[in-house]
Design brief:
The protein is α/β, with parallel strands linked by helices. It has two domains: 125 residues, Rossmann fold, CATH 3.40.50; 196 residues, Dihydrodipicolinate Reductase, domain 2. It is 31% helix and 22% strand.
Amino acid sequence: MKKIKVGIIGQGRSGRNIHRHLFECCPLLQERFDVIAVADPIKERRANTNPGANPACKHYADYKELLQNKEIELVVNACRSHKHVDIAIEAMEAGFNVVCEKPLTNRVSEVDRLLAVKEKTGKFFAVFQQARFRPLYRKIYDVIQSGVLGKIAMVKVAYNGFGRRWDWQTIQDMCAGELLNTAPHPLDQMMDLWESFGDTDPERIFAKLDCINNYGDAEDFVKVILEGKDHPIIDLEVTKECLFPTYQYQVFGENGSMVGNGETVEWKYYVPAEAGSHEVRIATMETEGRLPVYCSEQLNFYQEKWTCPPEASGFDDWGTKYYLNIYDAITKGTPIKVKLSQIRRQIAIIEECHRQNPLPKSVKVPEGTL
């Protein structure tokens, strides 16, 4: 089996603890990828620590030196968010295929600039959105598509918790905030689900962003509602002000509903053919003694439950499935699951949310950092 030679730019929480970990620790990826170079200005982060690390892996302090290594076949761009587009373009222009960390950017114009370079160079490009492969979401998607819940009125997704942050991912000028940090995971899933009802942009977007618990100046409270013809309402929450989180996923349907949390999905529904039908009444409802009464019927509800297999419950499973798709896309021409058109739509929504909620900037980034 051919091994794709990988160079990783950035050895922070993502580059080192996610991408390099996946390539060097997960058997299915060890068979398909070989990390031959990493770049990070901090020496200690570049060290080979995983059991599957290539002892000949080259270490660079400057990513520009990594881009001189023409043995590399795939560059993983895991630099800090505000440099994603520029470095991805630089890598493609240097002749490399690229997988870029999320968020790709916060502006559609930057997406289009990057896609123009992809078209010009003919290089492979994808964005790392491993939550698309989360088994919990995939099961929810499949149940919705089965039609057992009937017409879907709303899908609510809540990635809520409580916490305070003071790192660089709380600074607007560094392409940060929860809308760009945590929200891309559920938002990517919802773009996948949204497209299944019709490949159109949302007609209406409501957004409320606020900076409440962050020490920086980017949002840590996110509420987004998407509406469109023939689509269910998408209700997305990502907050750091919630000590009593409930379900991560809720689906409201014509014939029943569904919830998902942790590793379990449950859905409850009735079968219309078994329930009979009613004619609408203009006259008041009443008993035989002409006393008023409310509509009442006994529906036969079915209830089902699915639990994720233990071997598929962790982040490694999602990341492995993502990179198996990337491997097949590069070696066989298989379409990528996380389509760039969906990424562009996601960024357009994020940009509109920021347009509706211009937050004041209070953090000055030192000159040269950006």
